[in-house]
Amino acid sequence: MKFHTPLIGAFALMNGIVFYMFLLHLPFGSEAFLLSLAHWSKLSPFIELAASLGAVTAIAGVA
Q1: How far apart are the two ends of the chain, measured CA to CA in Å?
Q2: Which of 25, 37, 51, 59 is deepest in the core (most CB within 10 A)?
Q3: How many angstroms separate the CA atoms of 16 and 14, rounded?
Q4: CA distance 63 to 61
Q5: C-alpha 19: how far from its chain's center?
Q6: Each residue of 2-57: pLDDT tens digit?
Q7: Per-residue pLDDT at 1 exceeds 70
Q8: Do 20 and 51 contact (CB within 8 A), yes or no?
């Protein structure tokens, strides 16, 4: 495996997380991200849409 492949994956994952935070209008950072995952059911009803768009962004960046 080439060295740049894991770097591209990490970059795509970070882009997906930042996009997820942007869609939920949450501050950027690991603490807000982890709190959003811990209190999933109490957040916006659109959290599933934000999470799926973030995941698609991350997966599309790797592919």
Answers
A1: 15
A2: 51
A3: 5
A4: 6
A5: 6
A6: 888 788 888 888 888 888 888 878 787 888 888 887 887 787 777 788 888 888 88
A7: no
A8: yes
State which amino acid sits at residue 58. A
Give the pLDDT score at 63.
66
Helix (H, G, I), strand (E, B) or coil at 24: coil
Q: Which residue, chain included where needed, has tokens 């492949």?
A: 5
Q: Vertex 23, ends 62 and 19: CA angle to 5°?
A: 25
The whole-angstrom separation of Cα 55 and Cα 60 is 8
Question: Do residues 52 and 24 touch, judged by C-beta distance below 8 A?
Answer: no
User: Any idea where the domains of the chain sit in the sequence?
Assistant: 4-62
pTM to 2 decimal places: 0.65
- CB 36, CB 24: distance < 8 Å: yes
